[in-house]
Amino acid sequence: MELYLDSANIEEIRHAASLGIISGVTTNPSLLAKEDPKIDVRKRILEIHALVGGHLSVEVVSTDADGMLREADEILSWFPEATIKIPMIPEGLKAVRKLSDQDVETNVTLIFSPTQALAANNAGATYVSVFVGRLDDLGADGMEVVRDVRDIWDTQGLSSLILAASIRHPLHIVEAAKAGADISTCPYKPLMQSLQHPLTDKGLAAFLADYKKMQEEIAKLKG
Ligand code: E4P
Asked: What is the pTM of this model?
């Protein structure tokens, strides 16, 4: 399962990219506004693109297909490899179909059910983003939707990539991988938490202390 960073923060993206563990970045209007409500979106997106050569989802804000397609054209003029992120609404599906027919990659966002994922796949979506955490927040089992989508995809031989989104903690990453998600897009904090284990830190401290002791003994012998 590939990992993307779900962020519009340059420092977070720079650090995660430097670790070599992410193959893309997903953004949305809320993440951009969190950085700065007056943010220059084009400039920030191009900064992110320069940091992470791989996938970059950029979301449209129109709610009609023509508006979405106009925005997609503008985003693609910034950089032609952009993935256009489109909300899972009927007008969004229309736009996805048109973009897919032009071989433009799309990421259908705000998916909360297998039927929405199926419709997005049939419209030609490259990625279907299932929002796990927001379902969990309502007391539902968000990962169940990822599992159902995977089952349906395997039964039917469907091709959109399954993207587990709205990730809240490292266990979501584990569950998404077990559920067969192709990608999981994580905020910086759970991604960094997922790299840590107290036994790793304890073990490294012991290795370094033993190595230091060894060096001290060698130094004593020398002289
Ligand atoms: C996905 O691409 C979305 O940007 C994101 O995962 C939304 O997550 P949230 O529920 O934490 O806002």
From this structure: 0.95
